[in-house]
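Changelog-adjacent note: as of this version, every example in the card shows the full chain rather than a window. The one below runs 124 residues end to end.
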Amino acid sequence: MVTKPKTLISGKAVFNLPEIDGRTRAARLSRDIADAIANDLGGPDNLTEVQRQLIRRLAIMCVVARGMEDRLALGEDLNIGEYSTLTNALRRIAADIGLKRIPKDMGNLNDYLQTVAAAGGGAE
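Full-length structure tokens:
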């Protein structure tokens, strides 16, 4: 039986090889980007496996693009062909998973307040 991870990229889910350290700057940035994208799409629990896989790759590609941009800012040369190919691939993946934010269903406020009141909680 295969279980879905509760968060899209947590721990070593992206870097699942034992020799890869998930604490690197690139790993942390990739997780942060993937988590932000997953939240924009309504949260990790609302994603299909295909979306999860695309988000994972999109996040890694974002880190690579950012590294290229950082090196350019430091005065190093930028291979515009590689950069253009990467950014076009990023755009295509983003279009595939969706560019619009999907709000997470937080439920109805009145239902929540009734539940709290029935449980004996609430403001006094």
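Structural remarks: Confidence is low (pLDDT under 50) at residues 2-15.
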